[in-house]
Design brief:
Length: 331
């Protein structure tokens, strides 16, 4: 087996997040469905950006946020994602390298601009996302660095990239490389709209190519078109080795074989912005798995990371997750 250099290598949409406060009236005026995620074109991205309140801009994307969390825990991380040869692309690359992640995917030259997600957050912490993918969904199998994948304990695939055919082919190549090297493959379902569009294909991909699944309760129910959580969880356990399903204030459920563990949500004084909660849960959970720690520890690391990120604006940790985990006696 190739020597392990990384705990996690993530493949995802390289997106710059623009996050701003709003009220329900703004969402109604702009025709946005509260708490949802929709894809938009570049023209709509420009008009919505102009209408939004002043906020913050930060390198994001679901898998990129997870890599930032893993690095904050002290993990060794690599990232594969597509940005354009433009200013935002340069910012994204600089940000990823600044957190200690390896990010060497070739830039897109002469094509779409670097992607961005316009996130409007209401007072109750709910985020409504409008995403222009741009260069992010131009990832191809040629962008998969086989040496990096082989050297990573876990390959983590972002469900948002399941839409473009080239990106899905990149997923398949990356999973094949990982399994040939004796590594594990994890996927996040990302959003119910992803599941609704690609339900059958996602289930087939999970059965044939994945060892680990991360999802929230709504995504799990959508995947199996069920309304009963326990029934849906049983369906998932039958097709994957390990899974973690988040349930907001109810915490999460971690399953592997006959083992099932309920993980309580860590307390938060005030929920400010739920953007990145699932991404940071994945960071803690996957790092624990990569290090061979008990499932309960993995789930608790995820909960610690999720609690940190929803207490402030932005999808990435603002304090050391390793320090928080050490204070809880988890590391």
């Amino acid at each position: 087996m190739t020597q392990t250099r990384f705990d996690i290598c993530a493949v995802g949409n390289a997106i710059v997040d623009v996050i701003a406060p709003c009220d329900d009236a703004f969402l109604a005026r702009e025709g946005l469905s509260k708490g949802g995620m929709m894809l938009i074109d570049e023209a709509r991205a420009v008009s919505l950006y102009d209408a939004m309140a002043t906020g913050m801009e930060a390198s994001g994307g679901s898998a990129g946020n997870t890599i930032a969390g893993a690095a904050s825990f002290g993990g060794r991380a690599a990232y594969i994602g597509k940005v354009a040869n433009d200013d935002l692309g340069s910012v994204y690359r600089t940000d990823m390298r600044a957190i200690g992640a390896v990010f060497d995917t070739p830039e897109l030259i002469g094509g779409a601009a670097t992607g961005r997600s316009l996130i409007n957050v209401t007072e109750d912490g709910q985020r409504t996302m409008s995403t222009f993918l741009g260069a992010a969904n131009q990832l191809t199998p040629d962008d998969i660095d086989g040496d990096v994948v082989e050297a990573s304990e876990i390959l983590y695939l972002e469900g948002y990239l399941f839409d473009p055919s080239d990106a899905r082919a990149a997923f398949e190549r990356a999973a094949d490389v990982a399994h040939a090297a004796g590594r594990r493959v994890a996927v996040t379902l990302s959003d119910t709209f992803v599941v609704d569009r690609w339900r059958d294909e996602l289930r087939a991909f999970i059965e044939t190519s994945c060892d680990i699944v991360l999802a929230n309760e709504a995504e799990l129910l959508s995947l199996f078109q069920l309304t009963d959580f326990e029934a849906a969880l049983s369906e998932l356990r039958a097709i994957v080795d390990t899974a973690a399903v988040t349930r907001s204030e109810k915490g999460s459920v971690v399953v592997s074989g006959d083992e099932r563990i309920e993980i309580a949500a860590y307390p938060v004084g005030k929920v400010v912005d739920t953007t990145g909660a699932g991404d940071q849960y994945a960071a803690g959970f996957l790092l624990g798995l990569a290090r061979g720690w008990p499932l309960e520890t993995c789930g608790k690391l995820g909960s610690v990371a999720a609690a940190e990120v929803i207490a402030h604006w932005g999808p990435r940790p603002q304090v050391s997750l390793r320090a928080l985990a050490e204070a809880e006696g988890l590391i």
